[in-house]
Design a protein that fits this description.
Layout (H helix, E strand, L loop, with lengths): L10 E6 L3 E6 L4 E8 L7 H23 L8 E4 L2 H11 L11 E2 L5 E6 L16 E5 L22 H11 L11 H4 L4 H13 L5 E5 L2 E4 L11 H8 L13 H20 L26 H8 L15 H9 L5 H18 L3 H4 L8 H6 L11 H18 L3 E5 L4 H8 L1
Antiparallel strand pairs: 1-2, 2-3, 3-5, 3-6, 4-6, 7-8, 7-10, 8-9
Length: 422
């Protein structure tokens, strides 16, 4: 970042999660990611820098190793003028969802992460002046716990996402329960995947967003967001997916365009070529739990038809969904089995705080750290080393459970298709 040329008016609010907030540049395909903290929690500039550098190293040396070089963007830590950050914070405050304003943007350190804006990223030179459509999906956890440590019977039948839907509707975060179930998306069965994606489009919540040329055109921030309008979405999508039946408007056109979008997303999710090292986990992390979630409307409809289990096609091993699921399944013990191990590590560190650095509790996230994650044993030998490995595996699994998949699409001319196929 060029310090003398930072103008807050060139940046706009893009989105935020529980721990960070993102702003996007109006012209360039870059975003800045700032950390957020509760108002009473202060950290030094050095601590902020190290925190952000750890995120970069974790992405580069852990997640990129598992998921593949082409699927993870690590970014870099940059230092910004403090006055720019303060003015930017004031500029975007009114755009932030009320539910996220319990934490403040870090305006004191001047550090942030600079990353590519994947909602606008132009991959091929022949697409430079064509519209970019980006679909962001947060698929969530794709399996039901298989650990013998699980004591609640319901957790062996219903996935975490579907259980949380009931909680979030009861607490008023969302108006209605989504029909989306992650196990349908991760099934590899196209019929189930289509149902899952249509369910996301009907009730996006914060699990699906669609951007056109970097601008959000579909998705919601909280329970007060308006009901999804498929006809409006179809209007945006027509240049990308004009229906083959030639209908230019009306409900038939809307359904045809949405159907085409769902089919394209499914094809993308089932394709893949970047290898990564998630395959090294495969021998120990097969689909050990139930294949379906009892709360899934798709599964319930089959039971009403007298069918017990939907067909499971399985995910191709090279696809991103497969690799993401493998990393999620590093959660070998569930939180019920992990918590006693976490307490073991905590007690050890209370007694020997100087060991925190030696044990790589806060990094560095290097090759040695990555290699320890490949130990899939679940036999507890009573050591701190075993407990720490399971805790670190759980942290990586939770990262994969909360990751976003960004799919960028652009109209492709006939000559460009030939170029791509060649």
């Amino acid at each position: 970042m060029e310090e003398g040329k930072m103008d807050e008016n060139e940046w706009g609010y893009h989105g935020e999660g529980n721990k960070s907030l993102v702003v996007a540049h109006a012209q360039r395909c870059v975003v800045l990611r700032f950390l957020k903290f509760p108002p009473n929690r202060k950290k030094t500039s050095e601590e902020i820098f190290q925190h952000l550098q750890n995120i970069v190293d974790f992405g580069k040396n852990v997640m990129k190793e598992f998921l593949g070089e082409n699927y993870v963007h690590c970014g870099e830590v940059v230092q910004l003028p403090l006055e720019f950050v303060k003015q930017l914070c004031l500029k975007i405050q009114s755009e932030r969802p009320e539910s996220r304003c319990d934490k403040d943007l870090d305006t004191l350190s001047g550090y942030a992460m600079c990353l590519p804006n994947l909602t606008r990223l132009q991959t091929y030179r022949f697409a430079e002046h064509r519209p970019i459509l980006c679909v962001e999906i947060k698929p969530k956890c794709g399996f039901i716990p298989f650990s013998s440590d699980v004591t609640h019977e319901m957790k062996h039948k219903v996935c975490r996402y579907c259980m949380h839907q009931h909680l979030k509707v009861a607490t008023g975060k969302w108006k209605q329960i989504s029909k989306y179930c992650p196990l349908d998306l991760y099934s590899g069965n196209k019929q189930r995947m289509h149902f899952a994606l249509k369910s996301l489009l009907q009730e996006a919540q914060n699990n699906l967003k669609i951007f056109k040329n970097g601008e959000l055109i579909y998705g919601c921030k909280d329970a007060r967001s308006p009901v999804a309008d498929w006809s409006e979405l179809a209007h945006h999508l027509k240049p990308f997916f004009f229906p083959s039946n030639g209908l230019a408007s009306g409900p038939h056109c809307t359904r045809a365009v949405i159907r085409e979008l769902v089919h394209v997303i499914t094809r993308v999710l089932l394709s893949g070529s970047d290898k990564g090292r998630a395959g090294t986990l495969s021998p120990g992390l097969g689909p050990q739990g139930p294949r379906v979630c009892e709360a899934s409307p798709f599964s319930r409809s089959l039971r009403c038809q007298g069918k017990n289990t939907p067909e499971r096609s399985g995910l191709p091993k090279g696809c991103l969904l497969y690799k993401t699921l493998q990393v999620q399944m590093l959660d070998l013990l569930d939180i019920e089995g992990l918590y006693p191990l976490y307490n073991r590590v905590e007690r050890y560190l209370e007694e020997f705080p100087e060991e925190r650095k030696t044990l790589q509790i806060d990094g560095p996230y290097d090759e040695a750290f990555y290699q320890k994650l490949l130990d899939l044993s679940t036999e507890d030998d009573g050591t701190v080393a075993f407990a720490l490995t399971k805790v670190q595996q759980y942290r990586v699994a939770m990262t994969a459970k909360d990751c976003s998949i960004m799919i960028a699409l652009s109209p492709c001319l006939q000559d460009a298709r030939k170029y791509l196929q060649g």
